[in-house]
Amino acid sequence: MDWTAKWIKPAMEMEEACPVFTKEWSTDKPIKEAKLFVTALGVYEAELNGKRVGDFIMAPGWTEYFERLQYQEYDVTELLQEQNVLTVTVGRGWYRGRIGTISRKQKKLRENPPGLLAELVLVYQDESEERIGTDTSWQSAQSRVRLSEIYDGETYDACYEPEEALPAVIFDGPWNTLIAQQGPKVIEQERIAAARIFTTPKGETVVDFGQEITGYVEITVRANAGEIVELSHAEVMDKEGNFYTENYRSAKAKYIYICRDGVQSYKPKLTFYGFRYIRIDQFPGGVTAAKPLNFTAIVVHSDMKRTGYFRSSNPLLNRLFDNVIWGQKGNFLDVPTDCPQRDERLGWLGDAQVFAKTACLNYDAEQFFTKWLADMAVDQSEDGNVGIIIPAAWYDPKPSAAWGDAATICPWEVYMTYGNPAILQAQFVCMRKWVDFITGYTTTPYLWTGGEHYGDWLGLDAPSGSYKGSSRDDFIASAFYAYSTSLVIKAGHVLGKDVSEYEALYEAIKKAFQEAYPVYETQTECVLAVHFRLAPDCQAAAKQLAEMVKRDGHLMTGFVGTPYLLHALSDFGYTELAYELLLREEYPSWLYSVTKGATTIWEHWDGIMENGDFWSSNMNSFNHYAYGAVADWLYTVAAGIKPVEEAPGYAKVRIAPTPDKRLGWLKVSFESRHGVIRSSWTKADGLWKYEIETPVEAVIVIAGKEHRVNAGRYTFYSEIK
Ligand code: BGC
């Protein structure tokens, strides 16, 4: 885009309010085509002649703004008239909001004004062209959005009339960081009616939408000017049944709407909330006048095609799978976030790495990850460190094993799922540099020792008072060092690069690892040794894992061990035990949260304890997708749909379903780039009956026996053991 527009900012103090920029003009020549290009230092919403331009929510999206700022292009031909008014409101968004509390970079961003860059390119029917770009002919004023902040919410005054409108001021905004939209758009995806309104023991009026979502509430109300709708957001109710917001920490997550006369609707424009419940703090005519029809929850997330489906005879397991899907919807809002509600909502690398494979099966997430990984590449420091959050909004980069390894794991999972080497091409340098970083940073050659790590974050074997499971930091870090190196080698082979140096490094790490760690002390240590194939005898290590699980009676793993736990068991013959963990309903287990009414995946195994208490108010998100990584085992082991490394992207497939007697039936479908793959099993006449559909050549493995088949539908039977 060759801009003729200038960066503009408001001419007056904004205080808390968001500026609105306005341009009016008229044309009498017939229009052929009109395109609007826009970006902002914040988030913006544009209206042309009173109609919203496009459907992108929270545009221009979140990128590493120091290097990359997306602009959007909209076809506005249909919205044009003879007399035209274009308005653009700019909120703080990620650019100038509270989201950066610690990093120097983010603090610097907030020194910028609420800048706008917009250019309308008009092509008339006589082929002549005119451009209307932001400049001093645009007016600036305070808008009716009196406050908008990602953590704190939005205040809108429908009666507000600005005292003054002044010509906008040109300033020296960013030019060389501008890029065209790269990720999928974030749009409104679903509307959910209020399920019920009830009164809590404390006397609060609360609306339940029946599902935890990320987005906002649309209100429709008849009111007199000046009456107020005030809403608070919450994920859960406390033990006594009262509205609970402590776990949002400093995020106010408020929604205040000051009404005009008559019937009106409003939904926040420039922020989002993570919630299932809203409390009605004020309402025209009193809070008891509020009716379910006054409220609709709107689900907002990155636009991705749904590709994975799961159903079984177990309703709790089905709900768990749905919770995984909702976890992804709630946390794929332009960047993969840890959670959508409290004062974080950040692109934590550990969480993203853990969930990447599941995410790619549930939805087509190639474009989503491509954009975010490009931010990682530009955020990577000279020495190769990628830090722990991307965009690096919170902390100045500091490394942690299993977090930084998102640099290798995410591109690899995207490649394996979709088969397109472009992601490896784009990220290879970043992947390689991450491994080089470890090599330069460690205090012991061929292991990663030293440094501070999150370890097996939230592992149940954490010493009291700590968030970190008791698996050894150096053990985890060294295991991931090996794994990341192995992925650099694989990626190098795909791209035809010489990776002999990394092959030698890998062998040296593996040898050093085996010498340094002859003994595994925790479930997670066993899991990593087995899953990364670092143990000299994986069968024996898996046996040790199985024994530990039986001894402990349940899983003890945190962020690092949990995603691979069932795989480590089932890969070495302990599938029954893996199912036992999967189907367990008592604490701690995946289904425990489901029995407690969860509609998304919890951050903690015991977010709500058996006695109804919260485990803590500080770190207790009810929408953290990490443990939802278990869905990958449902696709690839329970239904058995596995990608083949030699034919990535499911160009060829291995389908090895593993039924379990405790389930009557199970059904999975995954829409690969080569077509839909289906795998199901059910009990029929005392046998397992398998129905399998493959769009490509496949090896189907039934009860240990391999069948080579072409594309088609197949039925098999095996004994129930
Ligand atoms: C986030 C995590 C993240 C962690 C780092 C938390 O506050 O919510 O999910 O990975 O910090 O250990």
Describe this structure in words.
With 721 residues, this protein is an alpha+beta fold. Helix content is 26%, strand content 29%. It contains 15 helices and 36 strands. Strands 11, 12, 16, 17, 18, 19, 22, 23, 24 and 25 form a 10-stranded mixed beta sheet that branches. A 6-stranded antiparallel beta sheet has the order 5-4-7-2-10-13. Strand 17 (196-199) and strand 18 (205-223) form a beta hairpin. It binds beta-D-glucopyranose. Residues 338-339, 344, 348, 350-351, 454, 457, 624 line the site of beta-D-glucopyranose.
What's the count of strands? 36
Q: Can you tell me the overall shape?
A: globular
Number of individual domains: 4
Q: What percent strand?
A: 25-35%
CATH topology of the largest domain: Glycosyltransferase
Largest sheet: 10 strands, mixed
- How far apart are the first and last residues' alpha carbons, in Å? 65 Å
Please give the share of residues in helix. 25-40%
- Number of contiguous helices: 15
The CATH architecture of the largest domain comes to Alpha/alpha barrel
The parts where pLDDT drops under 50 for at least 5 residues are none
What is the mean pLDDT? 96
CATH class designation of the largest domain: Mainly Alpha
Query: Ions, cofactors, ligands: which are bound?
Result: beta-D-glucopyranose
Gyration radius (Cα, Å) is 27 Å
Helix/strand/pairing category: alpha+beta
